[in-house]
Amino acid sequence: MKHLLSYLMVASCLWGCGDDETVSRFVDEPASTGSSSDGALPPPRTPLFKKDYDYRYLLVDMADRVVMPSIQSFEQEVLQLSESLGSACEGGDAASIENEIINARAQWLSAMSRWQHLELQWLGPLAENENVLRNRIYSFETPARAEACAVDIAVVAAADANFDAATRANTARGLGALEYLLFNENLNTACSMAVQQTQNWNALPELDKLQMRCRYAQLAANDVKAQANNLTEAWAIESGNYRSRFINPDNTSHHLKQLSDGLFYIEKETKDAKLGRPLGFYDCLQLACPKAVESRYAAMNAQHIADNLRAFKVVFNGANGQGFDDVIAHEGYAEIAQEINASVDAAIVLAEQLGAQDLQVQSQAIVDDTSESASAACQAASANPSVEDGDFCDLHGFIKNITDQMRTDFVTIVNVDLPKRAQSDND
């Protein structure tokens, strides 16, 4: 929460600067009282502001302190990833190339960490045309998720001088394809023998395989760099200047809705797709689904989830500026924002505690336990999560605590609708 002095300074400008054209709540009627996790919202405290909250300040702060810095940081990390692969493929022997690939892994991890923050900022250019730019950069949880065989086919095709990585489907490009190329140490193809393009791959010398995969990794990294640059240019004041549209009072309701929708990434993507499906909680025909795990090759499942949660806090609280916590405080429910933050902090603690543990291992253990006791124990842990000796099932439960608060208290107080993709709860 921001200090009282900061509120009073902003309030004095809102009330005394002579501009009465403030942006009122984008829904004319107040939301009906919803119920919180303990039954009902407490009676509101007296709001600090006596006028409707001016969302222009929030949108300006989100653009200048959250979204644009996140995009610029990601672009810089991708640039460094591309540069790290620049000469990696020209080593004289297999060991030299392998060492360069290992070095590039660290830069991929940095780029992916920044991207996991942007995953909660699906708005503007990133969300246009059914998220086409987002999916080109990272296609997790889409029908065109990066797929090993598709990448292998692209590796072979890239030997053609006229090859253009930008023409490949999302199954063979983006950060997901780069993860496979950099972290998968099995040099044999993932394709079946029925796939003509890769039929001769396994017979190639090890050095040829390493060089060809490395060269396609260069092309894939350059493609991601180009997409990141497109995103930066779209927002930059001197070029696409989406910022001006984002902060335009005429677009307030649309962009506020996009921001609030972005927060629900932790429900549909983080909780349901990254945890719920691998653990067998939903949309899985087995006791669990190990192949649904995000980051199967880098085994960074917990770290990606921790980054999602940190990104949630940045959007929810703002970055030393206005955030949704200020909106909630303005409505007289500052303690609700504190409770949501406490729930997020608990989930972050466990995600960080899990560290390098691989969700695939726990998911496979549930599948292998034919007695189904592991599955039952996982369900119980999610229903009553604990940090002490907690695992991915507990983490699912902690995140559900957050999303339950978002579905009730948050949407009621901020007066927004649930995203279309979150109209139903899978738990």
Automatic annotation (TrEMBL):
This is Imelysin-like domain-containing protein. It comes from the Bacteria. Keywords: Signal. InterPro entries: Imelysin-like, Imelysin-like_IPPA, Imelysin_sf. One of its GO terms (cellular component) is cell envelope. Residues 72-378 form the Imelysin-like domain. Gene3D superfamilies: M75 peptidase, HXXE motif. It is found in: Cell envelope.
